[in-house]
Each structure stands twice: as C-alpha cells, then as structure tokens.
Amino acid sequence: MTQYLILPGLGNSGPAHWQTYFEQSAPNFKRVEQTEWDAPNCATWIDTIDRAVFANAWGSQLKNIGPAGHINADSGFGQWDEGLALLDYFEESLP
Fold first, then answer.
1. 60 located within any domain
2. Which of 44, 48, 49, 93 keeps 20 to 30 A from 7, CA to CA?
3. pLDDT in the model for residue 57
C-alpha cells in the first residue's frame, strides 16, 4: 500500500480541511506534526519534514488543478473528492 504524508501549512489543518479528511480516510495517510503551527521556525519545520521523508527520492510530478487558490475548507473544497481521485491516478501510475 502506498504511504502518503500530509504536510499542513501555517496553523495546521482543521477538522473540515481535506487534509484531515484524507488522513482519517485510510491508515496509509500520516500527518507530519510540527512543534509550532502558528509561529513556526522555518529551519525547524524543514528538519521535521526531512526526518519524515527524503523528497528527492520521490520522483514526484506536478499536477495542475487550475485556478483553485488555497485548497482548504474555507475555499469550499471540503473533503476534496477530486484530490482523492488524483491520488488514485497517481497510485495506478506507480510501477
């Protein structure tokens, strides 16, 4: 099963945010927990993420979802079912 990291931004992600929904939808989603969500130290945040994953080993690909702006609950994305569909697409493309 593919493992996914949830990387919330400033302030973390609330209960109605798609990141929280994804995390609760399956055991293969893991949130990277920062020690300070509201007044972060950039170096500390980066170190925390680096400990969770080495991004240069991902072979990741950018997927443009158009003029969505900030993809959060306040923008009306809610559970963001399209996002889960994109993850399914990604998982199917893996060797």
1. no
2. 93
3. 61
pTM: 0.66
Place of tokens 């990741």: 60
Range of the domain at 81: 13-53+75-95
Can you tell me the distance from the alpha carbon of 61 to that of 63, in angstroms, rounded to the nearest whole number?
6
Q: Which two tokens stand for residue 4?
A: 């996914």
d(C-alpha 1, C-alpha 27), whole Å: 10
Quote the number of domains for the chain: 1
Note whether residue 7 is domain-resident: no
Decide which of 78 and 1 is more confident.
78
Report H helices in 1-95: 18-25, 42-52, 81-93
User: 69 in a domain, yes or no?
Assistant: no
